[in-house]
Amino acid sequence: MTNPTATSERPGNKGRSIGAVVAGFVAVFVVTTIVDVVLHVLHVYPPWGQPMFEPGLNALALSYRIVITIAGAYLTAKLAPRNPMRHALVLGVIGTLAAIGGAVAFIPKHLGPNWYPIALAVTGLPCCWLGGLLYQARHGEGSSL
Q1: Mean pLDDT within 28-40
Q2: Which of 73, 59, 94 is nearest to 27 (CA)?
Q3: Which of 109, 31, 15 is nearest to 73 (CA)?
Q4: pTM of the prediction?
Q5: pLDDT (average), residues 104-112
Q6: Burial degree of 49 (CB within 10 A; 0-12, 13-18, 19+)
Q7: Of 94, 91, 102, 101, whose CA–CA distance to 128 is shortest?
Q8: In the 8-state DSSP scheme, what is residue 111?
Q9: d(Cα 17, Cα 101) in Å, to the nearest integer?
Q10: CA 108 to CA 103: how far, in whole Å?
């Protein structure tokens, strides 16, 4: 006779899993928004709503979003009740889908170069994989999904 609880998820793990992914997503959104606001206030970026076609400024935005996304995935992996890499990758898929939606909305408005929102969509999943990998390396976790 098999033990049904041995193969099923423990109570509360589903909520903790969802919470881990939501926490990573919210952290990335909040921290990138704060950095954006600071750069607008410091007049590094043009005023809100004005186009930003300067490649260097877009590269700056992409670079800190990459770092923050890696950190958000690390946080997700840390908060995951089990399978930290799987949770980080789920965050990556959700972030990629959100970035694709943003690109679809952003590109027709001509507020900046088209490569920028495309780069956000392309880098999301690899950044989350790297965040999960860093968590595993630091905490001696296996590489299983």
Answers
A1: 98
A2: 73
A3: 31
A4: 0.88
A5: 95
A6: exposed
A7: 91
A8: S
A9: 24
A10: 9
